[in-house]
Specification:
The chain is of the alpha+beta class. Helix content is 36%, strand content 26%. The strands form three sheets. A four-stranded mixed β-sheet has the order 3-7-6-5. A three-stranded antiparallel β-sheet has the order 2-4-8. Helix 3 runs antiparallel to helix 5. The relative contact order is 0.24.
């Protein structure tokens, strides 16, 4: 049975989400503490609270255009606002009784939600699902200008963890992973996201 839950590094006010970019975009974002050009506000951007999912997606910051991994700390208020607006990228039967209703809602929402297999340290897929949130050009200004609190370059940490893993020191690699725990949600929001209760 698949498990749907949000696991994240969060505190009272903020949550960390991960993104991977080219050094041109990533370096500018870190230097300014926010996303600036050449980051585009005119296309969907996906944010993910799962570090290991991001590592599988970027191949430990080795994929072209994803050589720089960023931890973007955003307000929990902004995160939950995005979740409250999100519609699933597929017709989740736990959430949508009518496929036509789902299509209409997806067409008009500024935020998409997608559940992908969570990953192990070595990148193998798990039954547990990991959330990613797509922010469209209709809401990305909020993400950049209001929700973002800080941006940290995690690339050196990513390389260190990957080196330990490659050299057979999985225990050492695990010790360096960012801490995460289940993110609390009100029941209405959990239901909207199709999260197990």
């Amino acid at each position: 049975m698949q498990t749907y839950e949000i696991r994240a590094d969060y505190n009272r006010d903020t949550i960390a989400v991960y993104q991977a970019y080219s050094p041109t975009i990533g370096t500018a974002a870190v230097e300014h503490g926010r996303f600036v050009e050449p980051f585009s506000r005119h296309r969907m951007t996906w944010i993910k609270p799962s570090f290991l999912w991001m590592m599988a997606r970027s191949n430990w910051a080795q994929k072209p255009g994803q050589e720089m991994v960023l931890a973007v700390r955003i307000t929990r208020t902004g995160w939950e606002e995005a979740l409250a607006l999100a519609e699933h990228t597929s017709a989740n039967r736990k959430v949508y009784a009518d496929p036509d209703e789902w299509r209409q809602r997806l067409e008009h929402t500024p935020v998409h939600v997608q559940w992908d297999p969570e990953r192990t340290l070595r990148g193998a897929p798990l039954d547990a699902r990991s959330i990613q949130i797509g922010l469209s050009r209709h809401i990305i200004d909020r993400y950049v200008d209001e929700w973002t609190v800080s941006i940290e370059d995690l690339t050196p940490l990513v390389r260190e963890i990957h080196t330990h893993l490659r050299d057979g020191r999985a225990d050492r690699a695990k010790q360096l992973l960012p801490a995460d725990r289940v993110y609390p949600l009100i029941p209405e929001l959990a239901h909207r996201l199709g999260i197990d209760r």
